[in-house]
Amino acid sequence: RLATSHGVLVDTMPPRQYGDYSGPAPRIALVLTPLNEENLMLAAQVGATDIVYYNMNSMPDDPAQLKEVRAQVEAHGLRLSCVEGGPPMDKIILGVDGRDLQIENFKACLRAMGEAGIPILCYNFMSKGFVVGRNTYEAPARGGSLTSEWRASEFDMTTLTTDGRTTPEQLWASLKYFLDAVIPTAEECGVFLAMHPDDPPMAEVRGAARIMTSPEAFEKLIALNPSPHNGITFCQGCFSEMGVDVPDAISRLGHRAHFVHFRDVKGNAEDFIETWQDEGQTDMHKALCAWKAVEFNGIIRPDHVCLLPQHEEGHATEEKAVGYFSGRASGYTMIGRIWAVGYMRGLFDAVFGRATSSVAATALDPAKLTTTLRPQ
């Protein structure tokens, strides 16, 4: 079931999601900053059903720790569905000494997730010398809100990152080595790997190559290891930055998506501003219709929300998700998320129907909280 497209072998399976959440529609998930009782109660109140454990530095490799977090989440009628960030990968990405030790730690984390019953691990393959690129986290947005902005033309590209120069060939070789080593463990543990795009999706920044920058790159990712446990975090904002039609890209890649970030921008990979989810360059209704067409029923979370400065200070001063410090309008403040969930719920009802949307009474039925492989 592989064919040639754009010079690489790609998966030609029918457009169906591999991870099956035993429901007819996607589910709304949230990152909580911080993940505490107050915010868990808030998530349940506004209609989210799933929680994402977020840490961009590391994650527990002890299943007991993850089970403790899961119990805390489930006490509020929510499900812990995903770990975002994952274990350290800097040596894995560069393909240098120490990567095998990091791979063994990665496998230990997968085993811990499997034992704790957490089905999705979202990770990225960006050089740690330069990860997410922004010029400012205080750009003006609608009504006096604040957001982040990227302008490559105003960014100093002359200084190399701490990783020095890297090449696409180096990163692709490292990625294949990594996937071949960890996918068998992911299969054994029932955990689905979900690769996040590079942000911004530029081919190089400060001498550091970036490879997850286009739909073709994600087709190549799938071809490197055809296991359904090798999948995608489909960040709609990053695909919007790539300059592609997001609903078309969903139709093309959605059958290998295990996790979705509901986010948008205005601009392109070299010059963009983050927007409220209802005013970017993507038709979000059409995007959800595309997810319905590929039968996606996994988790979708709002990402990179705007800051309401009259109501919250932002993450230049307050606690943020562990391991990712940026600036005031970090995208990870709570009030913008409340608005985003309401916007998403309205679209979900319009696209999937009230009876089957993620806020239906059956959404939290414990009997439906399973993740399996769909027969193909």
Oligomeric organization of the protein chains = single chain
Poorly predicted spans: 1-20, 361-376
Taking all Cα atoms into account, the compactness measure Rg is: 19 Å
Global geometry: globular
Helix percent reads 25-40%
Strand order, biggest sheet? 4-5-6-7-10-13-14-17
Class by alpha and beta content: alpha/beta
Q: How many runs of DSSP E, i.e. beta strands?
A: 18
Sheet having the most strands: 8 strands, parallel, barrel
Mean pLDDT: 88
Give the SSE order as H and E letters.
Answer: EEEEHEHEHHEEEHEEEHEHHEEEHEHE
Tally of helical runs: 10
Head-to-tail CA distance between termini: 12 Å
Strand content: 15-25%
Tell me about this structure.
- This protein starts with a strand and ends with a strand.
- The protein is built from ten helices and 18 strands.
- Helix 9 (284-293) crosses helix 10.
- The protein is globular and about 50 Å long.
- With 376 residues, the chain is an alpha/beta fold.
- The relative contact order is 0.18.
- 32% of the residues lie in helices and 20% in strands.
- It has an eight-stranded parallel β-barrel with strand order 4-5-6-7-10-13-14-17, surrounded by four helices.
Question: Care to give the gist of this entry?
Answer:
The protein is α/β, with parallel strands linked by helices. 32% of the residues lie in helices and 20% in strands. Mean pLDDT is 88; it is low at 1-20 and 361-376.
Any key phrases for this structure?
single chain; 376 residues; alpha/beta; eight-stranded parallel barrel; four-stranded antiparallel beta sheet; 10 helices; 32% helix; disordered N terminus; disordered C terminus
